[in-house]
Write a structure and sequence with these properties.
This protein is α+β, with helices and mostly antiparallel strands and about 140 residues long. It has three helices and five strands.
């Protein structure tokens, strides 16, 4: 069995990642809005299911249930499309709740992530591959 060839990793510079911010802002805003709305619908459907279970049964409006389930499907599709678009840009989507996207970066020869959060106009933070948002550190001035 032949080994699969892996594409070389894309390492971003700070300016390369920052050039994507306007597009990322549009993509993430759409995906985050869809994600938030979907969470609300899921919570409402789960609440209705719990109410029916606790009361030992109940009547549901099948048309309403079907409409909400269909809306949930459409929102999930919108979220998936946004994630796929970020991945095509070679970003790493991390958290749709706050709009985090990472970009692979070499800092002193070590692989780390540049970290962008929705709403930020520039990329000013990085963190190790095994760290998350809480581990963000300022990018050295000479690299920005």
């Amino acid at each position: 069995m032949a080994e699969e060839e892996q594409e070389p990793k894309k390492y971003f510079s700070v300016p390369e990642a920052e050039a994507l911010i306007p597009e990322l802002t549009r993509i993430m805003e759409t995906a985050m809005d869809a994600h938030s709305e979907a969470q609300g619908i899921r919570a409402a459907l789960q609440g209705e299911q719990r109410r029916i279970m606790v009361s030992g049964g109940g009547i549901i409006d099948p048309a309403s249930w079907k409409e909400r389930a269909g809306r949930l499907e459409a929102l999930a599709s919108r979220v998936q499309k946004g994630i796929e678009t970020v991945v095509r840009l070679e970003g790493i989507p991390k958290d749709l709740g706050i709009g985090l996207v990472d970009f692979l970066f070499l800092l002193d020869g070590e692989e780390v992530n540049l970290c962008w959060r929705f709403g930020e106009k520039k990329i000013r933070f990085w963190h190790g591959l095994d760290e998350g948002f809480a581990g963000r550190k300022p990018i050295p001035d000479e690299l920005t």
